[in-house]
Structures are given as C-alpha cells and as structure tokens.
Automatic annotation (TrEMBL):
Pfam families from the UniProt entry: ArfGap, PH
Source superkingdom: Eukaryota
Organism encoding this protein: Cloeon dipterum
Gene3D superfamilies, sorted: Arf GTPase activating protein (1.10.220.150), Pleckstrin-homology domain (PH domain)/Phosphotyrosine-binding domain (PTB) (2.30.29.30)
Keywords associated with the record: GTPase activation, Metal-binding, Zinc, Zinc-finger
Protein name in the entry: Arf-GAP domain-containing protein
Domain PH: 132-232
Length: 273
C-alpha cells in the first residue's frame, strides 16, 4: 500500500472516532464504516446502501477501509463531518417529523434520507407538503371481512383534527376518526409489505386497527408524517401553555417527563417491526 493511502486510512479512522462522526449520520448506529465523500458524512452499512440508491449525482459512497481515497476526499471529510452536515441539511426539520433510529423500518429510513438530500425538504420547507394541514388521496385499505385491499379515499384535516375515509364518492364518510385518539405505526412485518401503515384507536372499550398500504413509499411516509403533524397541532391547541419541546414527539429517547411526553411515547409504542 502506498504511503499516502496508508495515511488516508488512518486519518479516516481517526475522523470516524470524533464526536458526531462516531455514530451514523442518518440512524445513529455506532461505529459507521462508510462515508458519503461529497456530502461529507459518516454512515452505517445500511444507510450507505440507501445513499448509494440516491445515485452518484447526489451521494458518492465509499468504505472507510476497503476503498481507495484521494487526499482531497479525505480533506473534505475533515472539513465537513456529521455535525456540520446536520447544520446544513437539517436546518428545518418539522417537530412532528420522525427522526429514524437504527431499529426503524427501511421505508422510514429511506424516506428520511431522500427527504434530506433528494427533495431538500429541510433546507426548502416549501417542499414539505405534509405540513399544510390538509391531505387527501387514495390508500389501499384492508377489508374487515375479506382481508383484501380496496382503494379508499382518505381525507386528513387539521382544522377539526379528523381523518375520514370514504367507500363511495359523494356519500357520507365510512368513518370519521379523531386524530388525537389515533396511533399510527409502520407495520411491514405484520402485513408483509414495506409500505404499510397501521392506524389504531380505542372504540367501545377495545382497540381497533385499520391497515393501509400504498405502492409508493414516499406516499405512505407522507401520510404517516401528516398525521403526526396534525396530532402535534391538536396537542398544541389542547395545551396552549405547553412549550414546543413539551409537546413535540420524543423519538430518539423516551424521557420520563410530563404527561404529554408519555402520550407521544404511547403514540410510537405500537410500532411493530
Ligand atoms: Zn445508519
């Protein structure tokens, strides 16, 4: 191995141990072994795979030890790193957006990475369609009796805090759900489908579930996020004196804080991966 290559491997290993770089930039898992050398971030194997899927025009991925590095590329990793890249690409992450962890399903992690670098949602907030307070569209809903999926139109409204769905157009909604009572989770293992979501609520003393799918992963994550945004808004209306940090969802760590935090903890508890 030439001297400079040897030096670069050692330099990268040293950079990867620095605070911020010692965890994957996207999911927080320990000891990342990969990097995106144009963006300047350290990544775990799984997130490196997602970065590669974005295409080299967005992210250029290398292994810290197994690939050959140019001096200038190592220099760029030194200049940027995870802390500075977060300041740049995560400037405006809405408080209702779920920041993925390593135990989250692929669909959430992939859409987080695409939102950040492909759609630039957190640097250009006008790209955040799910924060508008209204969303409508078709989702495939599992029938209660036949277990088959049927297209149903769903409408989410922040102004009255409801999610409703329609079996037939121009008729009354089949159900009107209060978002504040709704738990939303991804259910890929349960439904054997990556782009699936489980909506749960309590009715007549029992827990009911609604299972929905969409063939576009971006769409299902938009619905998931939009419901969280409406729910956060309803909490803020219900508890006007609470600060944003009190009502915002706690994703990375569930603190033993106030009741609102516990509500959010419960909100994510139903996730089954
Ligand atoms: Zn990762």
């Amino acid at each position: 191995m030439p001297m400079s290559a040897d030096r670069n491997v050692n330099l990268l290993a040293e950079l990867a141990r620095r605070p911020g770089n010692s965890e994957c930039n996207e999911c927080g898992s320990k000891k990342p072994e990969w990097a995106s050398y144009n963006i300047g971030v350290f990544l775990c194997t799984r997130c490196a795979g997602i970065h590669r899927g974005l295409g080299a025009h967005i992210s250029k991925v290398k292994h810290l030890k197994l690939d050959r590095w140019e001096d200038s590329q190592v220099e760029h990793m030194k200049e940027v790193g995870n802390v500075a890249a977060k300041l740049k690409y995560e400037q405006r992450v809405p408080p209702c957006y779920r920041r993925p962890t390593e135990s989250d399903p692929q669909v959430l992690l992939e859409q987080w990475i695409r939102a950040k670098y492909e759609r630039l949602e957190f640097t250009n907030p006008e790209n955040q369609v799910y924060t508008s307070g209204y969303m409508q569209g078709f989702l495939m809903k599992r029938g209660k009796d036949d277990n088959k999926y049927h297209p149903r139109r769903f409408v989410l409204q922040e102004k009255d805090g409801t999610l409703r769905y329609f079996v037939k157009e121009k008729k009354e909604p089949k159900a009107i759900l209060n978002v504040i009572d709704l738990n939303v989770a991804f259910a890929p293992a349960k439904l054997d489908c990556a782009n699936s979501m489980q909506l749960s609520f309590v009715k007549d003393g029992g827990t009911r579930h609604i299972f929905v799918l969409h063939n576009d992963p971006e769409e299902i994550v938009k619905w998931y996020t939009a419901i969280r945004c409406v729910k956060l808004h309803r909490y803020q209306v219900a508890y006007p004196s609470a600060s944003e940090s009190e009502v915002r969802p706690i994703d990375r760590q569930i603190s033993q804080g106030n009741n609102l935090t516990k509500l959010w903890a419960h909100f994510d508890e139903l996730c089954e991966y």
